[in-house]
Amino acid sequence: MDRTMARATTAELESDSDGAGLVATGITKSYRRGMWPRRRELAVLRGADFEVGAGEVVGLVGENGSGKSTLMKILVGALAADSGTISVIGRMGYCPQEPVLYDRLTCEEHLELFGVAYGMDEAAVAEAADNLYATLGFERWRTTRAEELSGGTRSKLNLAVALLADPEVLLLDEPYAGFDFDTYERFWDLTAERRAAGRSVVVISHFITDQARFDRIVELRDGLTVSR
Question: Sign of torsion, CA 61 100 75 216?
């Protein structure tokens, strides 16, 4: 496929991928660096394949500059691939490494705003918000503006926004970098609940410590994915 990326329909993926939540095949991406006549093309992804099945927790690791964040942005549609195909079943949630928040909005207002964007009704937003406040332990900050939150609480809100609509596939870029130990444990409890409910979770990180918490670890190396 010449510098395009196709998305298959749900029906196509169900018939071809045996229930997988996300399938990416042959993803390539290059960046141009420098000024003419010394401009050169840097290939970051050289045909990466990636798959996560329903109810799977998969870790994606790699060195700095290996293309992990580039692949993540392509998977969620924030960046166009040069070539390759991506197929997704259901709704996808994305939690970027750097919280994308509106400083003057409170936690409550963030969840209400994103609830509208997700097409959720008020009752569904309220129920989901209550559960997330309790699960992640930041209920006391409901009416606090994002600009007044600590780094750890901003990370919790960032994750709550991604989880609000209960996506079938959740992609997390360094999700627990700002968490204390209690929140770290809460995060893994939540991940275990999602796995039991048949939801897919992808965690991108520089390194994986608790490997037993993952079903599989995939490494991005030289622009290709390699199973560990």
Answer: positive
Rounded CA separation 173/182 (Å): 19
H or E element that contains 113: helix 107-117
When pLDDT is cut at 50, 70 and 90, the band that residue 19 belongs to is: low
CA-to-CA dists, residue 78 to 142, 180, 186, angstroms: 29, 29, 28
The DSSP string of 114-176 is: HHHHTT--HHHHHHHHHHHHHHHT-GGGTTSBGGGS-HHHHHHHHHHHHHTT--SEEEEESTT
Nearest C-alpha neighbor of 126 from the set 141, 104, 110, 111: 111
**Cβ pair 107, 146 in contact under 8 A:** yes
Please report which helix (H) or strand (E) contains residue 207, including its range.
Answer: none
Distance CA 4, CA 54 (A): 27
Residue (of 204, 157, 224, 223) closest to 58 by Cα position: 204
Query: Taken in order 212, 214, 219, 225, is the CA torsion positive or negative?
Result: positive
- Name, in order, each residue with C-beta under 8 angstroms of 96's C-beta and a sequence gap of 6 or more: 158, 173
Question: 């609940």: which residue's tokens?
Answer: 193
Selection from 224, 148, 156 nearest residue 190 by Cα:
156
Q: What is the pTM of this model?
A: 0.83
Q: What is the pLDDT of residues 57-101, one digit of tens each?
A: 999 999 888 899 899 999 999 999 999 999 998 999 999 888 889
- If we measure between CA atoms, which residue out of 61, 64, 63, 83 comes closest to residue 74? 83
Question: For residue 206, how many C-alpha atoms fall within 13 Å in the half-sphere facing its CB?
Answer: 6
